[in-house]
Amino acid sequence: MSFSETKTELFQADAKTKLLVYEWLPDQEVKAVMIGIHGGMAHGGDWVTPALYFKEKGVATYAPDLRWHGTYPKYNEKGKVFFHINSYDEYVDDIHKFYSWVKERHPNAPIFIICHSNGALIALKYALTLAKKTDIKGFIVSSPWLENRVKIPAIMKKIAKLIAGIYPTFAVKTPALTDVLTHDEKITARHHQDEKIGLRGTKASAKLGVESEKTQAWVIENMKTWERFPMFAVLAGEDQLADPQGSKKALNSIPSNLLTLIVHEKNYHENFNEVNRDETFGAIWKWMQKIPG
User: Fold this and answer.
1) What class has domain 7-290?
2) Cα–Cα distance for residue pair 1/21, rounded to 1 Å
3) What does the domain layout of the chain look like in residue ranges?
4) pTM value?
5) Which residues touch 96 (CB under 8 Å, ≥6 apart)?
6) What pLDDT digit, counting tens, does each position of 45-58 carry?
């Protein structure tokens, strides 16, 4: 156990795909459940920080390694670790099946989705599609990857689209941003170590660029149709990856009675790993307790 998890299990996403699941389970009665959807380059173990906080409150956290992330190569033939996505619909389907898997274990506990960055992009598309068939109580969203902070020239997008059509898994090394994810030096060191051992990705595929841009546009356009699910969102003012102003604009298009939004102006991208994280977690916990069971 590398991330203080209670245990791990394998989740059968489809006939050929197994995903490792990290589980942090409270010793007492489970009051609520969180399903963690990690960001690009990351892995399920990265949820250790919020998971341990909420474990003390009686909240269980289940977090899978998404396809092409973390331990994926260990359990899937020809798998490798890089930021790749065949389609966001595939990820949405995985999360929907995973929700049912968790629901079977906790049929009477309220279930929340907690997500970050690309995981938040996946979760928002899920909320706008298949999640409507569930009784999920709410979505907790950090730094959603709806717009890139660094704008990509149109010619580069065109080249990426051409490459993706010919060689979708063609991968290139991404800019070194590990040192601007959090001000917490210990967690930054952990991220670097995860990169060294191959648990954390350092490359992204051509297909990702095409699919992410398409899905970002779809989610932004459809946020105005958001209904039923309360959302707690936290944005980072010094985010070097996801544009916080673009995220704020998109999130504010949902009904105001469903949105609780806080902005930490000095935070880097990873709000749940930042040095002020306990302040954020405390606000989330208060919000969770106000939502009818």
Assistant:
1) alpha beta
2) 12
3) 7-290
4) 0.95
5) 126, 130, 131, 133, 134
6) 999 999 999 999 99
